[in-house]
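Re: that chain you flagged

S.,

Sorry for the slow reply, it's been a week of failed gels. I finally had a moment to sit down with the sequence you sent. For the record, here it is as I used it:
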Amino acid sequence: MTARIAGRMAAGSDTADRARGSVWAGAAGRLLPGLLLCGVITGVAQVLQAGEESLTGHPYVEALVLAILLGTAVRTAWVPGARFKAGIAFSAKQVLEVAVTLLGASVSLGAIVASGPALLTGIVGAVALTILASCALCRALGLPVRMALLIACGNAICGNSAIAAVAPVIGADSRDVAAAIAFTAVLGVLMVLGLPLFVPLAGFSEHQYGVLAGMTVYAVPQVLAATVPVSALATQVGTLVKLVRVLMLGPVVVALSLIAPRLPAAGATGKAVPGRLGFFKLVPWFILGFLALASLRSLGLIPDGAVAPLARIAGFLTIVSMAALGLGVDVRVLAQVGGRVTLAVTASLLVLLAIAVLLIRGLGIG
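Prediction finished late last night. Pasting the structure tokens below so you have them in one place:
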């Protein structure tokens, strides 16, 4: 009797193990095509960078930027089928989150502490001022109030993530959400490519440029793409400033939840369904991971010998996520977005740039 029970238990355990293995195999099968596509683009970008280095001694266009451009070119010429989507989405989100977390191991929190409370206060003030100014611009251009809030929060905080978080809180129309996210994806890539021009044009130091990138670029991966070609210092400062900006999403969402009942009724259909956002929606886990590793590094608990390998892994994973980011951008979307929306988003971004430059000059950031 005991033997039969033991046999049944063993058989049940084997069945559970096989079921778990089947689930993992199924997940891997769904992710593999998209991961391989991103990996191929990453390999081509790295080969092109190596070619630049052998010819000129310096990579004028880094593999991160090349991966975005290659991914965008592929996406514009050919739309990846359904079997690629899961892997591309995984590369753009989960792979990136791991890369950002690992980047914390090479950052000392002393860099942001040395800037003093004035910079932190300035970031908070700049985000609030940008939201107000952007909303005013959008309303002046005749956009609905919810669309204005989506554009303002997307520009001021963290692009698509902020739009996605704010939309259900204010009951935004789903078509407005799609338009805001689509245009933000294209404009974000243009920002990555054009922002480094501010170094020679404005005479910024590497530290100043890091603050500018962290204050103006939409997403964390785009901050990396915009700062890595400049210097390691710009990357560290830019990432830290950007993460402080992202942390503003929580208070902004709370504030919008309080004013949402007072917004005028939406005239269009297809509103986003209001819902409650959990802690990790407002403070993503990779920000906590980044800060944890940065704290360990600052305390000397991560050995120096481990920093370089972790940085190389983070760099490779970031390039993979850049390829996925490019694969999500179709430049033809510009032709499908209304003129008022295009003007509103562009003007809002210019306001953010102006506020960031004034912040840098006003605080005397060196």
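What I noticed first: The radius of gyration is 22 Å.

Talk soon,
D.
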